[in-house]
Amino acid sequence: MQSEEIENEIEALKAIYMDDFQMEEGPWKTTGFNITIVPHPSVGSNLNNNNSITNPLEDEGEQNYCAVVLKVQLPSDYPSKLPITTIEKKKGLSNEQIKELQTLVDKKAREKIGDVMVFDLTSTVQDYLLQHNEKPLSFYDQMMLRQKQQLKGKETEEENKEVEEQEVLDRLIEAELKRQKLLKSQTGLSSKSSNSFSVHSDEDLSVGQDSSASSANELTSGENDNLNKDLNNNNLPASLPPAKELPHIMKYVLQLLLVDIP
How far is Cα 97 from Cα 250, in angstroms, rounded to an integer? Predict the structure, then answer.
């Protein structure tokens, strides 16, 4: 036997939704019904033979491109206990959107427990449909959209390739500048050692040569270690892009930088 609260709510829902409200036999001690919901109820929710929603107000710009059926089972102790609700797709929404809508309905039901809530649930559904009431794309529009997405993907791939090539070039330039700096330091050290030799006696010159040579070797070894460390930490790729793929200006810059310092 239905409670007075359930009977009153059902009568109210029948008056609001009329032909879109249908009673349905539910499990024992439950009251079941289905409500077809659309974004614009004043337009109507009847489906034509092509499963598209008819629209007597088409000239006014209001069209129903989506629709669902809210299936409700009210337990005998409703509203103290939550109703069982199920969203059935009728038109216009994806399976992911149906799941999202079901989550919203379940959340609203938990918020309203203890009060009659079916109209609040149908309002939640209608608000969602209004937000997603989008005209479906024609076959031609879908084809053009796919082509546009593919073209955008190719442009993004080319942009990423250019960025990678520029990064490689930057690292090559940095490594070459470090190498040239090392060559300069070694050349300066040799010139300084040669000048010091002229002010020493033959004996001192011999000692100075040994000392300078030792220092030069130590410095050169240290500089080489640092250079190797810098190059190792430079994160150069295992294989560089072919030279022909680099812009001409990049190849020209590399040719200038890779000239050995005399």
Answer: 50
